[in-house]
């Protein structure tokens, strides 16, 4: 979305990220003008909504309906309140005041079909490529994208400044604790062979063999291994952690982030195979996994808890397929016991726990499980002990802790464990139990539990991880000796797991990557084990104008990071990192955005202490755009001009965010609920603006006055689509600076890129066979040195047009299949940079 390609102005869009607005956040103003705030650290956000507030705008942008202006005008918009066909009340985030009709309803196979088409259009044939190997998917002898990191972020957003990585939703640890697999939310699977000291990506070889479709989805939800052979790996694609957010807002759309079903590796992740869903069962493509359980006595025997049911892996001839054995959302599955007493236990979201000895036939496990306000359920057990099962339960109504329950023997009665620790704090009356819920049982002590939740309500809001003992209390149980042990881990805990049979090694997977505690039962602290875990979600990037090695990136829940060169970056500013901008005439001046506030550094932004929280803006979208003017060394004063889009207002500063004058703000004549989403300066006195409802404005400044002109409705030829405009880019071939490109998010039309020549609009999305895909397109870049060359970043790939949008082809050698949120061309070097959602920053030489 946001962009700022080379010599051109930074353009950008306000795409949401994935985290929680809570860290280092000032109170947001409701005034029209931004409010200057004092220097120093700030407290928690007054708008605490958890991951919902980050994910919903991003998800909605993906599924916003694209249609013609006439169709939009004729479409009746239902009232925002009430219950939709998904069973949830729907209120549009990006188009407040509107309801379900703003969303498209794709078929379940949409994502896998688009990926299949994309594979067929790879620019390099499989026969010309080397044999698949783990590591970056570069093509020998070809022009390749190169990774710039972060492979790790040092001095991360934790107590003690532990190194952090990206969102990790699943961990599988082999005996001895040296071989470890980490499943990331949108970066694929990583493997460590040295106990987490270093990691290597295991899902990038697809680009060497485009016929190997299975590893095309880097969105993971669950991972499990054969306890006797750690080379056998199962992965459930599609992230279950975000399921409720999808289900609550994206009506009739994909309920999980782009999974392609279950995949398997027999060689430790070097190659992957896709496994089919049984005929007649709902497909798992486009769905999400929460967890997987492998039978230790038979590695072919696997059960998966998914967003569309409980699935059992069964033989089908010489192969295997996955068949549904129970409908409904299942959020957890474990296997416990030994020999003939071995048993699977699974939890159905909002309902209860069931058990099975064969994975095929399931009955209620125990009696007396709570029925009121039950939401997500996570189970815990000991590997060889099938007599005791624990359930950690969140409330359906507000995500707070419902309770911890214990079942002794499968036919017994569930009993509450009273006095649980505050694993899901609720300072604003709600918490994140649908997103953060983890439970581990000490492998040596059935009465010692480790509970994981959201965050500890203290600066800098570290991970909520608790150790507590379960004691008999009358006819029931109660917690004793509860202690918070997650202060050195990052917040938002998704998984806790011990090294097999080792109570002294407790692993944590969270929004900040992988952490390990080597004395969880004593005084041990978690340590970041994230070197090489290159799965950070980069929102946007800022580039030093002359030194291409210096970069900034906003990392959502992991703050903002900087590199002076090399793959190891350093955390430099807290909060949920979004846009960042370097003054191209004075690179010591840097801006970042987090949680509604612009931060400024006059010393190069090299450390946490170099920032002042300068201005607080009306906060409409989580990552509001900050844009600068085109690179122009002959006019260094131009570099001081910046703009911020906040709601329906654009604010302009002429002293690089030191002040914001009333006459430099522009309130757009917008429709109800319409927000600024993309900005691009053509010059210090001309700014183009794109909105969430598909309208485009040109702002021209004469003297001290800005004049707004709506151009999407040009009489000679209006813009042919309505929907979310994710980016705007100036067409540098037009010396009058009247021509622009725009690109659309949402779905429902392949005409993603449009061009305005100053008079009329025309689609520049290619023709059948060389056009763009019907997926969200997020970022545009026009090569100022050769403006017929246009680049677009999409949820699938980076695409290149050598002829101003007449034809398009994927520009993909070496770039993982993670969504691309930002594209920029370096202003003095021939380098195209891409910020990916799940694999960090990449660069491609254009010369």
Provide a descriptive summary of the structure in words.
The N terminus is likely disordered. The chain contains 4 helices and 59 strands. The longest helix is centred in the first third of the chain and has 12 residues. The strands form 13 sheets. Strands 21-22-23-24-28-27-26-25 form an 8-stranded mixed beta sheet, with no helix packed on it. It has 2 domains: 361 residues, Methylamine Dehydrogenase, Chain H (7 Propeller), CATH 2.130.10.10; 378 residues, Methylamine Dehydrogenase, Chain H (7 Propeller), CATH 2.130.10.10. A hairpin with a 2-residue loop joins strand 47 and strand 48. By secondary structure, it is mainly β.
Oligomer: single chain
Report the structural category: mainly beta
- Output the CATH topology of the largest domain: Methylamine Dehydrogenase, Chain H
Number of helices: 4
Name of the CATH architecture of the largest domain: 7 Propeller
Give the spatial strand order of the biggest sheet: 21-22-23-24-28-27-26-25
CATH class descriptor of the largest domain: Mainly Beta
| Helical residue percent band | under 10%
CATH superfamily of the largest domain: YVTN repeat-like/Quinoprotein amine dehydrogenase
Quick check: average pLDDT?
Answer: 87
The dominant shape is globular
Tally of strands? 59
How much beta, percentage-wise? 35-45%
pLDDT < 50 stretches: 1-31, 39-48, 79-86, 124-137, 251-256
